[in-house]
Write a structure and sequence with these properties.
The chain is an alpha/beta fold. The protein has 2 domains: 291 residues, no CATH class; 42 residues, no CATH class. It is globular. The relative contact order is 0.16. Bound molecules: zinc ion. The site of zinc ion has 7 residues, from strand 1, helix 9 and helix 11. The site of zinc ion (ZN) has 7 residues, from strand 1, helix 9 and helix 11.
């Protein structure tokens, strides 16, 4: 159901962008656009999530015997449905009408969402043994981020409060609103939680044969990077600025790019330090991550999808910028070098 028309109608239900950060930002935009031009092409959209990773060059991280995080909640099989007060099909139609007329339906949708409640419906499947390896992988990577960031925060004289991670299937109710798998992994600052559907990783493998686990780890570390920003007070300030500039305006997109590049940098800092503490990386992992970052730049993706670019709409950074900041984190491991807000925008 990743990129069906039905999934597209649910796109407006992804959480409030003022509180979320993640791969979902660009997915929302491209998915909405594609809904209206009625072109659904998974291979074209896919690089938005993870880039093209050459399976021949993949390397496997060394994670045997590593600690597993206890901050992971398995919510698979617990589908969420909007109860009375939810948006429903009427809300979706209103959203589409306002969008088509060129307006911003977000405010109306937020009002409609207020008072909405969520019910959990068990889908009856036994998930205990399904994707057990992927669950273990996520728990180990999250534990690695906990260990690294606890130490890095100690160095700064601060205390790190680790985020939670919810593994869900199909749809989930977060502190930032309801979301579906179509939006990709995301971080919600309202409940300090990273939300992830394992189907996302399996799709990476199924669609392009990319089962490089370091690419998966990069996805998790990027979302945790947003939590680090939240812990440091950066995320709240940036979201406030973005709200002042107005959603999806060029100025707001610039702030978004600065946030995303810093999350890439933090992902690199994590990988550097995780490797230093646990020897987790194999030869070729860094190249694999840099290649992935180069394939998820806004310029690369827009060219792939439309044959041209619109720089004022960039909200994650170009391929060159993403590779540069990830590489900076990967090669230095030094948090103090990750200021993406002071430099001129053109110098990022
Ligand atoms: Zn992000």
């Amino acid at each position: 159901m990743f990129f069906s028309i039905f999934a597209a109608t649910l796109i407006p239900l992804v959480p409030d962008a003022s509180q979320t950060s993640g791969f979902c930002f660009c997915i929302k935009r491209i998915a909405k656009l594609r809904f209206f031009i009625k072109i659904w092409n998974f291979p074209l959209l896919f690089p938005y999530f993870c880039g093209n990773i050459n399976p021949k060059n993949r390397t496997i991280m060394r994670l045997e015997g590593r600690r597993e995080s206890t901050n992971v909640e398995d919510r698979r099989g617990k589908k969420t449905v909007a109860a009375a007060g939810g948006i429903g099909i009427g809300g979706i139609i209103i959203y589409l009408i306002i969008s088509l007329m060129g307006g911003d339906p977000s405010a109306v949708m937020e009002q409609m969402q207020q008072g909405a409640s969520t019910e959990y419906v068990d889908d009856g499947k036994d998930y205990s043994q399904v994707d057990a390896e992927l669950m273990t992988f996520c728990k180990r990577i999250l534990a690695g981020t906990e260990d690294v960031w606890t130490r890095e925060f100690q160095k700064m004289g601060r205390t790190y409060h680790a985020p939670k991670m919810v593994i869900y299937s199909d749809a989930v109710s977060s502190g930032c609103g309801n979301a579906t798998s179509a939006g990709g992994p995301f971080y919600c600052s309202a409940d300090n939680t990273v939300y992830l559907d394992l189907e996302f990783f399996k799709s990476m493998k199924r669609q392009i044969g990319a089962d490089g686990d370091f690419a998966y780890a990069y996805v998790i570390a990027h979302e945790v990077g947003h939590h680090v920003q939240n812990e440091l007070g950066i995320l709240g300030q940036a979201h406030q600025q973005m709200a002042q500039y107005g959603r999806n305006t060029p100025k707001s997109n610039e702030v978004s790019v600065r946030l995303e590049l810093q999350a890439d940098f933090f992902a690199g800092v994590w990988a550097y330090n995780d490797n230093k503490m646990f020897g987790s990386l194999e030869d070729g992992d860094i190249e694999e991550a840099l290649n992935a970052a180069a394939k998820i730049g806004d310029d690369y993706l827009q060219k792939q999808a439309y044959g041209r670019t619109a720089p004022e709409t960039f909200n994650h950074g170009t391929s060159a910028q993403r590779s540069r900041w990830l590489k900076k984190g990967l090669t230095t491991g030094d948090v103090s070098l990750g200021d993406t807000f002071s430099p001129a925008y053109s110098a990022l």
